[in-house]
């Protein structure tokens, strides 16, 4: 497509989940039925994806080239508006990847709004989009479901327990649990 800069990517991507996966499994199997998934380019940026409790930090090897839209390239970002036909889609693109003083940026409102932009790129035949770390936002690769076939779980995936959110295991007496309805465990 005219004016759309493509980043051919082959390397590693990172994501954290609440569930484990078997080594050497493809992301399409691990995230079976997922229409899209988001990853980071750097392991040290996984905090954006971690949740409370036990987190499985996964390293994914890209087994064949991903063709990703370089979403923060100024010319690309501007030209994408030509492919977002409806005013609603253009408004979402401008909210999620706004341009200020000619420089594209990234805002994340909620996943449903973010998904609209990625879904449109998938419809246009790309594997997703690519962006480096920018001020106040981690690096991100948004992938379409078909692109998940190109990611294989690396042996270096790990379980990390978040010490700030580990459940307390102390026992409480039945009377204390049932006599004070205002107490949250």
3D structure, described in words:
By secondary structure, the protein is of the alpha+beta class. It has one domain (6-161). Helices cover 22% and strands 26% of the residues. The protein contains 5 helices and 11 strands, in the order ββαβββααββαββββα. It has helices spanning 27-30, 74-80, 87-96, 111-123, 174-179; strands at 6-9, 12-17, 36-39, 54-62, 66-70, 99-100, 103-104, 128-131, 140-144, 151-153, 158-161. The strands form 3 sheets. The protein has a 5-stranded mixed beta sheet with strand order 1-5-8-9-3, covered by helices on one side. Strands 2, 4, 10 and 11 form a 4-stranded antiparallel beta sheet that branches. Strands 6-7 form a two-stranded antiparallel ribbon. A hairpin with a 2-residue loop joins β6 and β7 (103-104). α3 packs across α4 (111-123). The radius of gyration is 20 Å and the shape is globular. The chain starts with 5 loop residues before the first strand and ends in a 6-residue tail after the last helix.
Descriptive terms for the model:
alpha+beta, 4-stranded antiparallel beta sheet, 5 helices, 11 strands, 5-stranded mixed beta sheet, 185 residues, disordered C terminus, single chain
Determine the strand fraction and express it as a percent band.
25-35%
- Described by its quaternary structure, the protein is single chain
Compute the number of helices.
5
Helix share, percent: 10-25%
Low-pLDDT segments, ≥5 res: 165-185
Q: Layout of helices and strands, plus pairs?
A:
Elements: E1 6-9, E2 12-17, H1 27-30, E3 36-39, E4 54-62, E5 66-70, H2 74-80, H3 87-96, E6 99-100, E7 103-104, H4 111-123, E8 128-131, E9 140-144, E10 151-153, E11 158-161, H5 174-179
Parallel strand pairs: 5-8
Antiparallel strand pairs: 1-5, 2-4, 3-9, 4-10, 4-11, 6-7, 8-9
């Amino acid at each position: 497509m005219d004016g759309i800069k493509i980043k051919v990517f082959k390397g590693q991507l990172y994501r954290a989940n609440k569930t484990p996966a078997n080594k050497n499994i493809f992301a399409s199997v691990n995230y079976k039925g997922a229409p899209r998934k988001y990853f980071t380019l750097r392991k040290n940026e996984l905090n954006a994806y971690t949740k409370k409790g036990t987190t499985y930090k996964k390293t994914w090897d890209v087994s064949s080239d991903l063709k990703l839209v370089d979403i923060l390239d100024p010319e690309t970002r501007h030209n994408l508006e030509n492919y977002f036909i409806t005013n609603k889609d253009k408004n979402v693109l401008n909210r999620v990847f706004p341009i200020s003083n000619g420089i594209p940026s990234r805002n994340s409102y909620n996943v449903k709004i973010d998904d609209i932009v990625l879904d449109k790129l998938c419809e246009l035949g790309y594997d997703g989009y690519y962006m480096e770390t920018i001020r106040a936002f981690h690096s991100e690769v948004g992938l379409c479901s078909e692109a998940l076939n190109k990611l294989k779980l690396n042996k270096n995936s790990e379980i990390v327990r978040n010490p700030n959110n580990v459940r307390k295991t102390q026992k409480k007496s039945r009377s204390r649990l049932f006599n004070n309805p205002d107490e949250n465990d």
